[in-house]
Amino acid sequence: MTGGTRAVLELDDIQRGVLSPRPTPYAAAYILFRVDERAHGRELMRRVSTVVTSAAGAASPLGETWISVALTCHGLRALGVPREALDTFAWEFRQGMAARATTLGDTGDSDPRNWEPPLGTPDVHVVLVALAPCAARLEAALDRARPAFHALPGVTAIWRQDCHAPPTATEPFGYRDGISHPAVEGSGIAGSNALETPLKAGEFVLGYPDELGGVQTLRPEVLGRNGAYAAFRKLHQRVAAFRRYLKDNATGAGDEELLAAKLMGRWRSGAPLALSPLRDDPALGADPSRNNGFLYERDDPAGFVTPGGCHIRRGNPRDAAVAGEPRLHRMIRRGTAYGPPLPDGVLADDGADRGLMFAFIGAHLARQFEFVQSQWMNDGVFFGAAGTKDPIAGSGEGTGDFTIPRRPLRRRLRGVPRFVVTRGGEYCFMPSLSALRWLGDLDD
Predict the structure, then answer these.
(1) CA nearest neighbour of 394 among 422, 368, 426, 362
(2) Are the beta carbons of 18 and 123 closer than 8 angstroms?
(3) pTM score, two decimals?
(4) CA-CA distance, 181 to 20, in Å (whole number)?
(5) Is CB count within 10 Å lower at the N or C end of the chain?
(6) How many structural domains comprise the chain?
């Protein structure tokens, strides 16, 4: 990995949505637009460049309220970005998420043919994300942004998803979420694990050296510098099925919660097994200064405490001895719940759509997001368990197993079904503020 000079990030040109962890609680909205008239699309870019919050705005009067904007490859084409510029973007971005379905494990119920329209179609051009500490302030933020896209008949809003993070920060399966956030060199934002060395800025923002010393660039430079790739996915969660599986495989209520912790790698309170292996510790789970401060290799190399195949150890093996270098596959991950919660104790599906709006931010779609999805979430070869899948978010269809290492005999759960179904998603690019202005000033 590289050493040398620390990056000095141009925070006033980077969208705040790239680097800032989200507050708790908060409300958010994803709004998708289609551009039918190039001139109006360019005008939209000019207008949103004055609305988007920069990463230097963490102390702004708006506080924990911000607007982010991203474009798909179809959107860049709709604005008239020259072919020679488009060809410098990552191949995966140019293909689009729907075309990458097999690699991502989006098969069966998650196949793009089953996605919610217009997700995964050429109609999705611009993605606007608004975030605020509560629903009222979210609507106020959207009111401030509305002039940017109103009175532009060549730009049409085609989809909206409202979502939220409750005060408990729990997602639909009942786990505290949003705990882990990497430290990014030069960002001025502390990571959630003080034991982790900050990652090079170029792992997440284009135009800066990454962990291998390379610099991701686009042509022209103004289009790429200070931008980032993003992936967002609407993930439906089968909460009733998850609860039934735990109950059917547990020996009692206490064992049910232990199984839930072993599948995730954390108790549902957020307390990690690595720091609280025998019982839940809600105070630890709710303490952001402690609940992510752990590694694996020294104390738990074989996964007797935190199983190698559990969700959080697959998503971030930290210092564990695995095939590959975990630092090359770190990513900024955010999840926001949508839909009504399933009432406690209910084991029957009520037909409501609920789940998580997942967001990835990084500079390397292939070796970050796609690698984690294909090699860590949907295969276990990296830790010596080839063919196994993430028991929480993997693409299993009821034929997979999950092993819990223990002495004297390991425990094996069989027939792990698919608990998470992809309802749609997009690969996007989050331009810098100066790139938004450049897009607005394009001339045929």
Answers:
(1) 422
(2) no
(3) 0.96
(4) 9
(5) C
(6) 1
Q: What does the pLDDT look like over 349-405, one tens digit per residue?
A: 999 999 999 999 999 999 999 999 999 999 999 998 888 999 999 998 887 899 999
Domain that holds residue 276: 9-444
β-pair partners for 235: 356, 422
Q: d(Cα 227, Cα 434) in Å, to the nearest integer?
A: 10
Q: What is the pLDDT of residues 167-201, one digit of tens each?
A: 999 999 999 999 999 999 999 999 999 999 999 99
Cβ count within 10 A of residue 62:
16
Compute the distance between CA of residue 139 and CA of residue 29 in angstroms, rounded to an integer.
9
Whether 6 shows a pLDDT value over 80: the answer reads no
> Amino acid identity, residue 380?
G
DSSP, res 343: P
d(CA 33, CA 38): 13
Q: Does some domain include residue 45?
A: yes
> pLDDT tens digits for 49-102?
999 999 996 544 457 899 999 999 999 999 999 999 999 999 999 999 999 999
Distance, in Å, from the CA atom of 238 to the CA atom of 172, rounded to the nearest integer, reads 9
CB-based contacts of 94, cutoff 8 Å, min separation 6: 73, 86, 87
Residue 3 lies in a domain: no
DSSP string, 109-140: GGSGGGSPTTTTSTT--EEEEEEESSHHHHHH
Provide the token pair at 81: 């970005």
Determine how many CB atoms are found less than 10 A away from the CB of residue 238. Answer: 21
Residues 6 or more apart whose CB falls under 8 angstroms from that of 188 comprise 11, 58
Cβ contact 227:430 at 8 Å: yes
Per the document, the length of the chain is: 444
Answer yes or no: is 38 within a domain.
yes
444 falls in which pLDDT band (50, 70, 90)?
confident
| Contact predicate 359/178, CB 8 Å | no
CA distances from 197 to 207, 275, 288, 289, 318 (A): 21, 20, 18, 16, 11
C-beta separation of 291 from 271 below 8 A: yes
pLDDT of residue 59: 47
Please list, residue by residue across 160-194, b when 16 or more beta carbons sit within 10 angstroms of its beta carbon and e when fewer do. Answer: ebbbbbeeebbbbbbbbbbbbbbbbbbbebebbbe
